[in-house]
Amino acid sequence: MQENYETEPDEGIIPIHGEEAFAAMRKAGRLAAELLDYITPYIVPGARTGDLDDMIDTFTRERGAISATLGYRGYTRASCMSINHVVCHGIPGDKKLEEGDIVNIDVTPKLDGWHGDASRMFCIGDRISLKAKRLVDITYECLMLGIEQVKPGATLGDVGYAIQRHAEAAGFSIVRDFCGHGTGKVFHCQPSVVHFGKPGQGVVLKKGMIFTIEPMVNAGKYDVKVLSDGWTAVTKDKSLSAQFEHTIGVTDTGCEIFTLSPKGLHRPPYNQT
Ligand code: MF3
Ligand code: CO
Ligand code: CO
Question: What is the pTM of this model?
Fold first, then answer.
């Protein structure tokens, strides 16, 4: 199907997608969510992040998809795993998860050419600090409050404001250096979805826009630096950082979340039967 394009001032070209694109994104998004559901029981003390990433890679291929991060700008892994003060783009490897860690796992399967992008936080073991638990809870709430703002006529400033307000009311800060993004057949496209802002400002949302919301919330200051590996972003003050991500599409009355967990594993604790 031919895609239409909407030109926004300052924001370049924002794709407007039709029902066929939504159907394809439903499948890609569901696979992203199923990947996170699948890996959940294996996220335990002692698990090696490289091994978890291998499992994600295998599951993705078994489902006829490929991780979009493989070979993306030189990145060589199927997922990102960002532990404690790592903000995002942590590279899976020899590191083992330890009791008390909090970790974000971010997956982006590309299925039939379409990208499903999602991440969740996981708490390792039972001895999570109260502050870490609260950071994870607030960050999840930030994502969902941002999503609640999405409908035709609302702006990305409305989304950013809702997220920023909730994080800062809790005494936390919103990372400035990374943002959500349009997605679809292209991994990252317009619009840029920053997680702070002012009501009524920024891009006006229209039915058919597809993008991620993925707030990164720091327990301390919002400053970030990227390590010498060129990927791993950490908080400058070494404070804890958390993130959740969904891919959504704007509908007539609000939005559809493409990456909702089929198993209901939305946020920790992921009590499974
Ligand atoms: N999934 C990440 C996002 O939310 C992008 C990861 S790119 C990588 O946009 F190369 F770091 F994997
Ligand atoms: Co993303
Ligand atoms: Co992602």
Answer: 0.96
